[in-house]
Design a protein that fits this description.
- The complex is a heterodimer.
- Chain A has no helices and 11 strands.
- In chain A, strands 2, 4, 5, 6, 9, 10 and 11 form a 7-stranded mixed sheet that branches. Chain A has a 4-stranded antiparallel sheet with strand order 1-3-8-7, with no helix packed on it.
- In chain A, a hairpin with a 5-residue loop joins strand 7 and strand 8.
- Chain B is globular, with a radius of gyration of 13 Å.
- Classes of the chains: A mainly beta, B mainly beta.
- The interface between A and B is medium-sized, with 23 and 20 residues.
């Protein structure tokens, strides 16, 4: 296993609600990236955090936001949930400045009804 | 045009077969390249990095052609346990994934 953990495993929310997903990175890794994976698609990059700062963002609206803490764990927050936000949310940790190999957690499956 | 495009699949092959996956990418400034495998309802797992000189890991061989912006993965002597979705990944400032190619290896 990679040592990357995520919580919760599954979550059901209703449209308009807010959700917070959590990720603990692998020991020794200081960078966390978040991805959204819809059914049948590859993961789509949401954003990356390095040393508690956002370090790149994909094509996602501002209602997707995040945090990284001093211990390098991270949160993904999504406001005003929409039905299309239903997906598997993956976080991946890596060592910045390396070959960018990323190691994924098991994901949080979010269902918006 | 998608940034990373893969063979649509699915690939259904018998045990012992050799199977090849192809991938093209659009950003010529991409810096690093990977193949990940993803089992059903699981997270992607790093299979191998891909280097310009080509690299091999057991039954798996990856090739990169920067001029053609093309990446390949060859699996020899396929096993039942190789059944998964294979994701091509290209990195410049962030990781861009292809949609994946589903492989099923049958007895």
């Amino acid at each position: 296993e990679t040592g990357v953990t995520q919580s919760p495993t599954h979550l059901i929310k209703t449209r308009g609600q807010q959700v917070t997903l959590r990720c603990s990175s692998q020991s020794g890794h200081n960078t966390v990236s978040w991805y959204q994976q819809a059914l049948g698609q590859g993961p789509q990059f949401i954003f990356q955090y390095y040393r508690e700062e956002e370090n790149g963002r994909g094509n996602f609206p501002p209602r997707f936001s995040g945090l990284q803490f001093p211990n390098y764990s991270s949160e993904l927050n999504v406001n005003a949930l929409e039905l299309d936000d239903s997906a598997l949310y993956l976080c991946a940790s890596s060592v910045a400045g390396s070959s960018y190999e990323q190691y994924f957690g098991p994901g949080t499956r979010l269902t918006v009804t | 045009r998608k940034e990373v495009e893969q063979d649509p699949g699915p690939f259904n092959v018998p045990e012992g077969a050799t199977v090849a996956f192809n991938c093209t990418y659009s950003n010529s400034a991409s810096q690093s390249f990977f193949w990940y495998r993803q089992d059903c309802r699981k997270e992607p797992k790093l299979l191998m990095s891909v280097y310009s000189s080509g690299n091999e890991d057991g039954r798996f061989t990856a090739q990169l052609n920067r001029a053609s912006q093309y990446i390949s993965l060859l699996i020899r002597d396929s096993k039942l346990s190789d059944s998964a979705t294979y994701l091509c990944v290209v990195n410049k400032n962030d990781m861009r994934f292809g949609a994946g190619t589903r492989l099923t290896v049958k007895p």
